[in-house]
Model the fold of this input.
Amino acid sequence: MAATLTQRCWAAPPGVKLNPTPQTQTRNPKPKSVALPLSANSTCSLFSFTPPSPTFTKSSSSVRTAVAAVESDQLSSAEKQKPSKYYFVVANAKFMLDEEEHFQEQLFERLRLFKERNNEQDFWLVIEPKFLDKFPDITRRLGRPAVALVSTNGPWITFMKLRLDRVLSESFEAESLEEALACSPTNIEFKKPDKWVAPYPKYESEWWGPFLPPGSKEEAHV
Done:
């Protein structure tokens, strides 16, 4: 098929002269392949190509989503099942709640500091804690009823052990806070001393209330 090239579409390179072919030269000329450079100001668009967009099947996308969901569920389950570690010091209730000097002040000062910093409380007093059943060596040396200071902060419990001195210390793991702080219902009674000679006032009745586990039903009588 004959074709006529115009200057509007093609531009000859420098030094090359193109002679137009008369239309009457040949009826059916043999087609030739001519490679000519395009002019920079040519207005013809000879080629138009749009790369195909990648296609994804619905099934493969669904499989990937399902696998991601399973992995996420497995991670969440693993985090939920991981037990927490708790540390404690324990002694008989008379020593912890009625005799030990400055114990009350230390706990209230720590509670005040937590509130000022908007920290969640991480220490509690547990009367007759059930976790003591895991420590027969401790229970044999312990007067009853017993009171434990429990916390998730190991270094602080170590400090309190050195501060209180006459206490026993250990640690354990529990699946939940409720399990860690579980206790047996116990009534605690402290007799008032006939004569109080210390330079500081006697501990108030039930001062330990703010440090008991949530929902604790323990009672104390002075």
Remarks:
- Helices lie at 58-81, 93-99, 103-116, 136-139, 154-164, 177-180.
- The beta strands are 84-92, 123-127, 146-151, 168-174, 187-189, 219-221.
